[in-house]
Each structure stands twice: as structure tokens, then as C-alpha cells.
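Issue 218. Parser rejects a valid record. Input:
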Amino acid sequence: MDYHILREFADSWAMLALFGTFIGVVIWAFRPGSRAVHEDTANIPFRHDDKPACQGSCRGSCSDDGATL
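Output the parser choked on:
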């Protein structure tokens, strides 16, 4: 393999394939049907604002319930 052949391939077809992949990923991420999934993922840190995640079912195993092990 000659360096110039690989360089020519990288400058033309490989660059075109990578650009096409990038455009495909951007279109897939911003498709109309993905809004609900993105909103659900964005709200993960706020799911247990009303009540703590640990409620009675894990007595003694939670670090914030006041129990000592």
C-alpha cells in the first residue's frame, strides 16, 4: 500500500462516509418521535424530589434512614 493511495482515500471517500454518519446521527437524535425519550432522560435526577427513593422496603440497607448496621 502506498501512502498516497491511502491519503487520497481518506481525503475523499472516508471523509464523505464520516460526514454522512454524522448527519445521520444528528437527524436520528432530533427526530420528532424522540422528544418523549429525551424529556424522560433529562428528568432522571428529579424523579424522587417529592419522596426519597428508599421507603421502608430497604430498612437497614439505606445510608440515610438512620439505622446502624
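Fixed in the parser; the record now loads. The two ends are 66 Å apart (CA to CA).
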